């Protein structure tokens, strides 16, 4: 009796391999997306810290915080105003001459602070740095 010469894969084998590849791909994409969000959030927090340091330097020289941080801090205390990785806004508000808030939008969530951080579609800021 002559043995059958099998060439190629059966339909079941192909379906099993395709399913395994799809599962691995989905896990990789979900992990990669979460990592990107965390990286962008870390950059936002670092940007706010950079602005905070510039504000403190400004206050040390002038005795009060500026009314418009971007106008007064750029060139003298910052080379340029930091930009959000997804084009949202960093919102500076001078509460009094001696206090301020800095707001940003974090993709990983947070508590709404009631300030619009711009963007398209518009989002509400959910991260705040305040002094004191």
From TrEMBL:
It holds the Pfam family N_methyl. It is found in: Membrane. InterPro entries: Bac_GSPG_pilin, N_methyl_site, Pilin-like. GO terms for biological process: protein secretion by the type II secretion system. Coiled coil: none annotated. GO terms for cellular component: membrane; type II protein secretion system complex. The keyword Transmembrane helix applies. This is Type II secretion system protein GspG C-terminal domain-containing protein. It comes from Candidatus Shapirobacteria bacterium RIFOXYB1_FULL_38_38.
